[in-house]
Amino acid sequence: MITRIHYYLCFVFIITSCNEAVKHSNDIALHTEKHWSYSGETSPEHWEEIEKNSSCGGAFQSPINIIHKDADSLEQSHLKIRYNATTFISKVENNGHSIQFDFELGDSINYNNKTSYLKQIHFHEPSEHKINGVVYPIEMHLVHLDDNGEVTVLGVLGEEGEESQLFEFFESFLPIKEGVSKEINQHVDLSGLLLNEKQYYSYQGSLTTPPCTENVNWVVFKEPIVLSEAEVLKLRNNMPINNYRNEQPLNGRKVGYNY
């Protein structure tokens, strides 16, 4: 009888120990697997450390502080924007980092004699790019891809003022919880942004979120669009606080000024 009890207690001890070991190993895995964010130990300052296979430590990163007097003036514009009233937004999602609207094939741009198609729009508050050190309340990124996968991003800064019909349309699909997407399948007319009439800066940079891929064509418009304070706040309330990456060094890059 004593022997059987002894074996039983040993068996219980081994099972309990194994369960505790598995639990401990899972706790370690959860502790060591970090995903990037905008705050704390996974904030932009640590992206290079935690995103091992990314380019976040590269020499030609974005965003930057654009100093107007240092930009090279370029009279001839190499950008033609072809936005129309029949392009469809397929869905909106809260990916935990921003509010993103995905587009079906339609709207396009021609930049440096290459045609790229609008894939998605997302937002950062406050702005990621600065002009002469000025931070704007919001920045809208219009992300385009060409047939070879080359990325061109139009950065549109926003300042507070009158209500924007475009942002009223965007925000009519909010609020949306993190990790949730909504089907939209409605067309939107982006031509009202009048981007073909605006002066802009251009430079070679990167995505502003991991994997921070470089060789991204950046076009940042000098003149901000106007939207209301309430519209800014509604977007802010649906995104992480301060979802922007810190300013990156130029490292000898030239910024063009197209007028």
UniProtKB/TrEMBL annotation:
Limits of the Alpha-carbonic anhydrase domain: 34-259
Keyword Lyase among record annotations: yes
Keyword Cytoplasm: no
Recorded GO MF terms: carbonate dehydratase activity; zinc ion binding
SUPFAM superfamilies, per the entry: Carbonic anhydrase (SSF51069)
Enzyme Commission code(s) on record: 4.2.1.1
Pfam families: Carb_anhydrase (PF00194)
EC class name: lyase
Cofactor entry: Zn(2+)
Database matches in SMART domains: Carb_anhydrase
Record-linked CDD domains: alpha_CA_prokaryotic_like
Catalytic activity: hydrogencarbonate + H(+) = CO2 + H2O
Keywords (A to Z) from UniProt: Lyase, Metal-binding, Zinc
Family of this protein: Belongs to the alpha-carbonic anhydrase family.
Function recorded in the entry: Reversible hydration of carbon dioxide.
Protein name as annotated: Carbonic anhydrase
